[in-house]
């Protein structure tokens, strides 16, 4: 099988790159092993929340020039602001409604009810400017009876620390009884499928309407709108008070919806998306990749003019840690990491973990290096890149989307 560009990895970086390329007439295929990080999303996309030295960032556009020389943002040829705009526009073009501004981070509500800074937030969720937006409000925190991935006590406690007054309640719908028989079936995605039925959603809305009198807002788990945002809009329009949807523990209903919308957009543009397959090796000729091979296709090769590695980090096996090294398993790319395993991590779980900065080595065009040699047609995008600590710095989505757009533009230019 032959394509103009073959992308390894079907998450946010891979799909962003593929959509950009297909829009510009570059025939692409994406090979994706399985679920991407979007399935575990808390409903927001971070651009830059903190610098490597711990300095807090309120304005990502102003702070981007202060990242380290090896940070992926430093390799965008001075076009950080341009790619920020393009990334947000790509979401809108794909029908994904987000709110936010790169000139000022806003606050999002986490599954624990705490507030964290971010760049863009799904329109499902509430965008806050500070904890003062919660202070003094009477909030009804409501769960679906039997749903264990939403902890109402944690959420209420966090809101009350911000000065709110909370009450906890639950709703029991007969339509969910079948799921409740087995706790493993009582998951956010399964609940969302049930609530896509208009009559069931209307029943839930009537139940809520009888509970919200006297409250300033109602907080609910984000279990609405798996296929589209229509149930979310209907819910918010039907109630007389603001609805705060709270991200649940994974899986993420809006994250899955975004993944599906990105994939649909890519395929509508003519892209080929192969889910459930894994690229395992590659053929080289000199400093160029000739073909790759996957588990499902055996000896049948995928041939392309260019290849993009967007396989993610440790979570998706884009990087693999060994006792004394970190490797990239598909192409054997050079990986930037420090010697001495003790230097990789901090024993305190919540402290900065150095291993998160490890990743594949690239040149200023994000072409991958192997044994020190730049591979002319092999590029990297997203969290597989070295130089950023996406968790500590709060830049994961930004690194994925901006580097993917940058790589795509390099390929379009030829």
UniProtKB/TrEMBL annotation:
Q: Which InterPro entries does the UniProt entry name for this protein?
A: FAD-dep_OxRdtase_2_FAD-bd (IPR003953), FAD/NAD-bd_sf (IPR036188), G3P_DH_GlpB_su (IPR009158)
Q: What is its EC number?
A: 1.1.5.3
Does this entry carry the keyword Oxidoreductase?
Answer: yes
From which domain of life does this come?
Bacteria
GO CC annotation, single: glycerol-3-phosphate dehydrogenase (FAD) complex
Residues in a coiled coil are none
Task: List keywords of the entry alphabetically.
Answer: Flavoprotein, FMN, Oxidoreductase
Does the record bear Flavoprotein in its keywords?
yes
One Pfam family of this chain: FAD_binding_2
**What GO molecular function annotation could you give as one example from this UniProt entry?**
glycerol-3-phosphate dehydrogenase (quinone) activity
- Specify the FAD-dependent oxidoreductase 2 FAD-binding domain's residue ranges: 4-399
What protein family does this chain belong to? Belongs to the carotenoid/retinoid oxidoreductase family.
Q: What protein name does the entry list?
A: Anaerobic glycerol-3-phosphate dehydrogenase subunit B
- Source organism per UniProt: Bacteroides stercoris
């Amino acid at each position: 099988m032959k394509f103009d560009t073959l992308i390894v990895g079907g998450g946010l970086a891979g799909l962003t790159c593929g959509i950009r390329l297909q829009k510009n007439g570059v025939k692409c295929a994406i090979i994706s092993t399985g679920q991407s990080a979007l399935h575990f999303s808390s409903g927001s996309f971070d651009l830059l929340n903190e610098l490597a030295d711990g300095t807090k960032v309120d304005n990502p556009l102003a702070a981007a020039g202060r990242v380290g020389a090896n940070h992926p943002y430093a390799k965008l040829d001075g076009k950080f602001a341009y790619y920020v705009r393009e990334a947000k526009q790509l979401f809108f073009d794909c029908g994904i409604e987000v709110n936010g501004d790169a000139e000022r981070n806003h606050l999002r509500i986490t599954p624990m009810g705490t507030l964290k800074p971010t760049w863009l937030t799904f329109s499902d969720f509430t965008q806050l400017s500070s904890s003062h937006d919660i202070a003094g409000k009477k909030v009804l925190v409501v769960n679906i009876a039997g749903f264990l991935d939403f902890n109402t006590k944690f959420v209420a406690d966090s809101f009350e620390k911000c000065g709110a007054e909370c009450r906890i309640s639950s709703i029991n719908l007969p339509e969910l009884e079948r799921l409740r028989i087995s706790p493993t079936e009582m998951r956010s995605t399964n609940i969302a499928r049930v609530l896509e039925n208009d009559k069931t959603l209307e029943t839930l809305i009537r139940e809520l309407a009888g509970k919200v009198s006297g409250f300033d807002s109602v907080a609910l788990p984000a279990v609405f709108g798996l296929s589209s945002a229509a149930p979310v809009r209907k819910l918010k329009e039907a109630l007389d008070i603001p609805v705060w949807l709270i991200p649940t523990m994974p899986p993420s209903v809006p994250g899955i919806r975004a993944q599906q919308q990105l994939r649909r957009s890519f395929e509508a543009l003519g892209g080929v998306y192969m889910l459930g397959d894994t690229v395992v090796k590659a053929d080289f000729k000199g400093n160029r990749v000739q073909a790759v091979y996957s588990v499902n296709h055996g000896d049948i090769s995928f041939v392309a003019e260019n290849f993009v590695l967007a396989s993610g980090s440790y979570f998706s096996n884009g990087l693999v840690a060994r006792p004394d090294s970190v490797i990239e398993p598909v192409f054997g790319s050079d990986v930037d990491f420090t010697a001495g395993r003790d230097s990789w991590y901090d024993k305190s779980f919540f402290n900065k973990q150095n291993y998160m900065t490890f990743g594949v080595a690239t040149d200023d065009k994000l072409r991958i290096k192997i044994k020190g040699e730049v591979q002319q047609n092999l590029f990297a995008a997203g969290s597989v890149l070295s130089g950023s600590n996406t968790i500590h710095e709060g830049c994961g989505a930004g690194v994925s989307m901006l580097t993917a757009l940058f790589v795509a533009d390099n390929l379009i230019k030829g």
